[in-house]
Predict the 3D structure of the following.
Amino acid sequence: MRKRSKFVSVIDDDESVREALPDLLRSFGLSVEAFPSAEAFLGSQALETSDGIILDVAMPGMTGPELQRELRRRNLRFPIIFVTAFADEMVRARLISDGAVGCLFKPFSDDELQNALRLASLVT
């Protein structure tokens, strides 16, 4: 019997990321749905079915860290991998201390992403 592939939600306001990243994740054997905002994710079925989240830090409306806090407030626990265009080690350290599995600086390599997905137990 084949086990179900893990389902990952990609939340990023950058359309190019929402188009390219799901293809890469599918090549790793994951199922993926992409969302343009935290609010769109919160209003979707993926809130109940996601095994993990790849989340942009800076977005209009609710930011990635604000979504992380909202999920915690709702007692929903997902492994979260943040991605950001702003390479700031202090921000990375804070996100990880707040419970994120990792924080990748754009542009990141396939290997960096795969390592973060392994840490999140989303790929082997």
Observations:
- The chain is about 40% helix and 20% strand.
- The mean pLDDT is 94.
- The radius of gyration is 13 Å.
